[in-house]
Amino acid sequence: MITIFDEHQVIAVVGGxxxxxxxxxxxxxxxxxxxIIARGTGGNNAGHTIVLNGAKHIFHLLPSGILHKNxxxxxxxxxxxxxxxxxxxxxxxxxxxxxxxxxNLAISGDAHVILPYxxxxxxxxxxxxxxxxxxxIGPTYIDKAARCGVRMNDLTNYSILExxxxxxxxxxxxxxxxxxxxxxVQAYTxxxxxxxxxxxxxxxxxxxxxxxxxxxxxxxxxxxxxxxDHGTYPFVTxxxxxxxxxxxxxxxxxxxxxxxxxKAYTTRVGNGPFPSELNNSLGELIRQTGAEYGxxxxxxxxxxxxxxxxxxxxxxxxxxxIVVSKLDVLGGLEEIKICTQYLYSGxxxxxxxxxxxxxxxxxxxxxxxxxxxxxxxxxxxxxPGWSGTVKDKLPELASMYLNAISCITGAKIEMVSYGAERxxxxxNPTPFYKRA
Length: 436
Ligand code: IMP
Fold this sequence. Notes:
By secondary structure, the chain is of the alpha/beta class. The chain has 14 helices and 24 strands. Inosinic acid binds next to helix 6.
C-alpha cells in the first residue's frame, strides 16, 4: 500500500477551522508510520482523549504518539509548558503501564514555562473577555514576546530561575511577595529536576532525524482561525497555529506536506464571531450527535454549517490538502447547507483599503472580529441529507457533499473520517474527490 509518508518525509497536521476539528484521530493514524511526532505550538489549552486499558484519559501536552512504541515524541520550542500538568500526564501513563523515558520523550529547553502568576493574570482579564481556557497561555506568550519569559532550561538552574521569577513578580505585582517567590522557585526547581533528562536541543534532534531520512509528523494544536496573525483577532489564542507557526515552533521547515483537518460542519468554543452558527435545535442536535463539548474545559461548543468562506481563508494559508472529519454526524439530517458568502449587515466600515457597506455581499473572510460579527451567512449550496450510517461505502449524497466542498473551496480531500474508531476512515480519495 502506498502511503502519504512514501511521498513526504514531513507531514504537518493542522486545524483548518476554530480548533477541535478531530486532528487527534488523523495524527494517531499517521503516527503509526512516523518515527517522530512533534508538537510546536500552544500548551495545555489543547486536549485529546486517549483510551488506556479501557479508561479514558485526556492529555493536553504530551504529543499523540506517546502510546506508540519506539517513537520519539517531541515538545518543541514554540510551545508553552505547565510542568506540573506535564508531570501529571507522564505519571498517568506510567500508572497505566506505559514507560516514558528519554527514548520516547524530548522537550525543548527553549519552550516557555507557564507559572502560577500567568494563570492569575489571565483570570483577571482575558478569561472572561476572550473566553480563554484559563491555563495561562496568553500571559506566558506575552512574557515570551516581552523577552522576560522563563524557559524550560531555566528550571534546571536555580539562580537564573530565582532571578527571573523575582523580576517578573516585581513587575507584575509591584513588589514581590517573598513567600511566593520562595514557593514558586522551590516548586519549579523540583519540576525541573524531574524533567531534566527530557530537556533537549529538539531542533538538532529533528534536523539529524531528517538528514537520516526519518519520518516526521508535526502535530498542530488549535485551528488556523484561532491564529494570532490569521484568525478572528482579538478572539484568538496567543500562538501562531497555522502550518507556518507549527514549522517555526519545532524549528523545521523542510519538504513539508500540510494536511488541514476540517470538520464536516463548524464548531467554535469561547467568545468571538461565528457567522454560520446554528443557535437553534438543529445546532443542539449536531452538538449532541457529535459530542461537541470541550476536552479541556468541558464547555459546550457552538455548532453550525460548514463555512466555505472561512475555509477558503485557511486553505489560502496552509495549502489545499484537507482531511474531513466527523462526516457521520451529519447523517440523518433532512438537508445540509454550506455557507458560501456573507451578507454584511452593519455600519459602513473601512477595511483593507476599501469600504464595506450595509447590505453588501462579501466572499472574503474578515479577520477583524468587529466586522465578522456583522456578517450573516449566505447559503448558496443546499442539498438533501443522507440516511443510514456510513459503512464501507459512502452514501451517494455524502459523496456529493464532499464533492461540493472540493468544488466550492478548491480543496483536495485526502482522507475522510466517519466515526471515532480507527477503522472508520477512507484514505483513498478517488471515489469522492473531484478537483474544482
Ligand atoms: P487560550 O488559548 O486559552 O488563550 O484561549 C483563546 C481562545 O482559543 C478561546 O476562545 C479558547 O476557547 C480557544 N481555544 C484554545 N485552545 C483551544 C482548543 O484546543 N480547541 C478549541 N478552541 C481552543
